[in-house]
Amino acid sequence: MVHQDGIRQGERTKQNIVTALTQRLRTTTYQQVTVGDLMRQAAVGRSTFYRHFTSKLDVLLLHHCNRFSQMLEDYQTESAWLADHASPSLHQFFEKVSANSNLRRSLGYTLGADSELAKHKITQLIVSQVENSLRTALPLSELQMPLPVLSAAIAANIQSQVVAFKELTNRNDTAAFVNQLQRLNRGLILAALNRI
Q1: What is the pTM of this model?
Q2: Of 9, 96, 121, 168, which has the highest C-beta tally within 10 A?
Q3: What ranges do the domains of the chain cover?
Q4: What are the CB-based long-range contacts (under 8 Å, 24+) for 126-135?
């Protein structure tokens, strides 16, 4: 069934469940959130929840997938990846990280038993999304290294910089930090294109 805004009911339900998780994470840790909490907050039944997700971890992964898509939204061209300054979407991503106090905790700590699997799957998600963006943005024939290697390097850079950012006590110059990340990613791409 398609609603008047063009979003299928199933997609709307999935996003409502993700929104429920996002809202819960503002006040509590991932470990403390239950599937029942998500069902109540999203106003869905048990069978509806499990029609879309197999676990709470799947909801978290879709949340991250959405965030990474938003972060990379402006990175669809070579000029965006090679710009001297970060795009608005990258700045917005870090503003969200800064605003969410629960994101400042260690990922392993907040995920509990799901920690190792979640970190692995989140890494796969960001590598995949970076690779898809680079595939459309860069002249692949000019790359001096395999695209998956470059994508993994950029994804690792982003992840390590998110960790470094969360550990900062003074976030007054978020823009400078994000622009530094942009320059690091730019350097990786220029090296891969053999333009330095």
Answers
A1: 0.85
A2: 121
A3: 1-53, 56-192
A4: 126/64, 126/68, 126/155, 126/158, 126/159, 127/151, 127/152, 127/155, 129/65, 129/68, 129/69, 129/72, 130/72, 130/154, 130/155, 130/158, 133/72, 133/75, 133/76, 133/81, 134/81, 134/189
Residue 109 has pLDDT above 70, yes or no: no
Residue 150 CA to residue 140 CA, distance in Å, equals 11
To which residue do tokens 């190792």 refer? 116
Which CATH number describes the domain made up of 1-53? 1.10.10
CATH number for the domain running over 56-192: 1.10.357
Q: How confident is the model at residue 26 (pLDDT cuts 50, 70, 90)?
A: confident
The pLDDT tens digits of the residues spanning 42-68 come to: 999 999 999 999 999 999 999 999 999
